[in-house]
Amino acid sequence: MEVKLDNGQISSDKDEVLNKWKCDFSNMFNRNDDSDVNICENDVDVLYDDMLDCEISVEEVFNVLKSSKNGKSPGYDEIPVELYKNQTMLNALTRVFNICFDSGKVPAMWSKGIITPIPKSSTSDPRDPLSYRGITLAPVSYKLYCGVLNSRLTYKLDDIDFLCDEQNGFRKGRSTVDHLSTLATIIETRKLRKQSTYVAFIDFKKSLRLDK
User: Fold this and answer.
1) InterPro entries given for it (predicted)?
2) Which 3-state string (H, E, C) describes the chain?
3) Is residue 180 part of a domain?
4) What mean pLDDT is reported for the chain?
5) Which of 26, 43, 112, 147 could link 64 by a cystine bridge, Cβ 3.0 to 4.6 Å?
6) Are 14 and 97 in the same domain?
7) pTM of structure
8) Can you say whether the dihedral through the CA atoms of 63, 138, 104, 156 is positive or negative?
9) Do residue 25 and residue 102 come from a single domain?
């Protein structure tokens, strides 16, 4: 395997290849010290919400488990989702999740993941690690816990009508394809009326970086 070094040279040396991948992905995903936000607990008003802060129920965990597909790659702990799909494990997961929820702490194992690089584009330089999107295989138990919290937040945001109606991405029962269909209809209608249409497409690079 080859990589393009910072000086532009191409190397196939194993140590240089591994170090280049490590450095590039570390710089991409790790926060800078000056970007960390220090929050004083004494300065934060803690508000209790019946919907968000109540004890995690077995039903909540069951619903997330039910929507999890079998046959998916496990995470660092190599425990597949199928192992959790029984009543004994369901009860155990619920107890563990409530401990995490009440304490605000999670098992150290959940902070470990296996990063699988996926090419961003067929035209990108395969020798550049930044031409790949890192997909992390996290422990299934961690993903299930996140699924429970995400379900609560999603339900709450919908309940208070927080999201604007124009947002279709990352919303249940909606698709960004709906926007494409609407845009195509608008363009065709304006063409029939002999009107010009101007559309701006913005591709944000590294839009999900934590320090941006």
Assistant:
1) DNA/RNA_pol_sf
2) CCEECCCCCEECCHHHHHHHHHHHHHHHHCCCHHHCCCCCHHHCCCCCCHHHHCCCCHHHHHHHHHHCCCCCCCCCCCCCHHHHCCHHHHHHHHHHHHHHHHHCCCCHHHHCCEEEEEECCCCCCCCCHHHEEEEEECCHHHHHHHHHHHHHHHHHHHHCCCCCCCCCCCCCCCCCHHHHHHHHHHHHHHHHCCCCCCCCCCCCCCCCCCCC
3) no
4) 86
5) 147
6) no
7) 0.73
8) negative
9) no
**Number of domains observed in the structure of the chain:** 2
| pLDDT tens sequence across 3-35 | 888 888 899 989 999 999 989 888 876 765 554
Spatial distance between the Cα atoms of 120 and 155, rounded to a whole number of angstroms: 32
Asked whether the beta carbons of 52 and 149 are under 8 A apart, the reply is no
45-49, 131-135, 143-147, 164-168, range with the lowest pLDDT: 45-49
Residue 8 and residue 86 in one domain: no
Does some domain include residue 174?
no
Domain with 1 in it: 1-31
**What backbone torsions phi and psi does residue 171 show, to the nearest 5 degrees?**
-130, 135
